[in-house]
């Protein structure tokens, strides 16, 4: 027994101590500041989206010209993601997050200053670059913080993005009839700058927790570059499968309800709102799901639920069944993207986040036009079943690579 007691004492001395009280407030402040940046990102982007009809009228753009101009957001985002990963490695994810957030707030004021589709497209390249940069930077910062907290809280950050998006869309709906697009977006710029500077002071005051552990050596760095690259690509594909569904439902979900099920415009809008609401709810439950099911279990269960929900949503004969399908799909897709991005960041740092994010935004770019082409060839309801197909594909990828990614 004395020997056993000595062993226990030695183990306690060698074990890492629990987070000390002075360190906990720092991590809590960092988590709060990052949550604010995620919410601000969603808030500003949704504020821009709800004013697209007004910008279209102002520029006099045709539907096709507007569609090409809107591609500037996605093109600008994808173009800077890998560069942002390198900047995060060079300067740290916290300063890059703050700078990108301020640029995003300034960039949202530019679209109402344009008077042609060409000028709008060029401006949206700038806005999209800021949007892509902040997404890579703040996700990289979140990965570091999740590691320091030793809790799988990544979905909570993405829940904040969803909540911010709903608030931005709601405020935009309230102000659309009272303020011009120029005044509305300038107001969002002012809000973004004030909030970004306030939350940015916290990030700039403290380096990313991962930087303190770099000297001690990261276990992920010990694995081969080729293996890590392959695993990052795996999680990038899972992110693509998830974001394909998000992009497809955002652009085509309401039209399916109107065109195929005969609902009014208001009911069609409710359908997508249910999707977004249940996605937010799923992300709020994400930490609990990850603690109970683990990464693989969460990805597999989420993909299966989303596939079942989208089959119901796309093939349902009645609107209420389609509403239920949209809600189930939102809950199922909720955590696939955050988990995939988080794991890619753990494997390869900001470069991993950038690579997986590029895959993910590729899915958002691929979804809407793919649905359109398939709808022309078959029907819109049939085309939307590809969302279920890719959700199931993401689940299969997660299950088949579970031993590699453990």
From TrEMBL:
Pfam families: MFS_1
Keyword Membrane attached: yes
Annotated segments matching region Disordered: 1-22
Keywords annotated in UniProt: Membrane, Transmembrane, Transmembrane helix
Domain of life: Bacteria
Residue span(s) of domain Major facilitator superfamily (MFS) profile: 27-406
Protein's name in the database: MFS transporter
Natural source organism: Streptomyces luteireticuli
């Amino acid at each position: 027994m004395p020997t056993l007691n000595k062993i226990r004492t030695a183990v306690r001395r060698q074990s890492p101590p629990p987070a000390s009280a002075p360190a906990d407030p720092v991590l809590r402040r960092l988590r709060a500041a990052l949550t604010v940046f995620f919410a601000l990102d969603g808030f500003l982007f949704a504020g821009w989206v709800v004013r697209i009809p007004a910008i279209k009228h102002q520029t006099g753009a045709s539907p096709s010209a507007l569609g090409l101009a809107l591609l500037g957001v996605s093109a600008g985002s994808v173009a800077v993601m890998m560069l942002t990963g390198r900047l995060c490695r060079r300067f740290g994810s916290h300063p890059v997050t703050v700078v990108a957030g301020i640029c995003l707030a300034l960039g949202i004021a530019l679209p109402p200053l344009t008077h042609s589709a060409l000028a709008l497209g060029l401006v949206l390249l700038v806005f999209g670059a800021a949007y892509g940069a902040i997404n890579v930077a703040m996700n990289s910062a979140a990965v570091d913080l999740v590691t320091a907290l030793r809790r799988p809280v990544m979905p909570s950050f993405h829940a904040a993005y969803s909540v911010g998006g709903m608030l931005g869309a709601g405020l935009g709906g309230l102000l659309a009839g009272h303020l011009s697009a120029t005044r509305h977006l300038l107001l969002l710029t002012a809000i973004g700058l004030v909030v970004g500077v306030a939350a940015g002071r916290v990030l700039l005051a403290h380096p990313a927790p991962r930087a303190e552990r770099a000297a001690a050596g990261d276990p992920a760095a010990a694995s081969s570059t080729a293996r890590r690259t392959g695993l990052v690509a795996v999680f990038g594909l899972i992110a693509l499968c998830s974001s394909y569904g998000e992009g497809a439902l955002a652009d085509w979900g309401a039209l399916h309800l109107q065109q195929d099920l005969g609902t009014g415009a208001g009911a069609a809008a409710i359908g997508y709102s249910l999707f977004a609401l249940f996605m937010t709810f799923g992300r709020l439950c994400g930490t609990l799901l990850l603690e109970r099911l683990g990464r693989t279990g969460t990805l597999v269960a989420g993909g299966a639920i989303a596939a079942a929900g989208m089959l119901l949503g796309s093939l349902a004969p009645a609107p209420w069944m389609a509403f239920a399908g949209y809600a189930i799909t939102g809950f199922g897709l909720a955590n696939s993207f955050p988990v995939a991005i988080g794991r890619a960041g753990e494997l390869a740092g900001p470069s991993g986040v950038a690579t997986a994010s590029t895959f993910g935004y590729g899915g958002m770019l691929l979804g809407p036009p793919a649905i359109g082409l398939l709808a022309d060839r078959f029907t819109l309801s049939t085309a939307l079943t590809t969302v279920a197909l890719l959700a199931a594909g993401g689940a299969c990828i997660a299950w088949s690579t579970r031993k590699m990614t453990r």
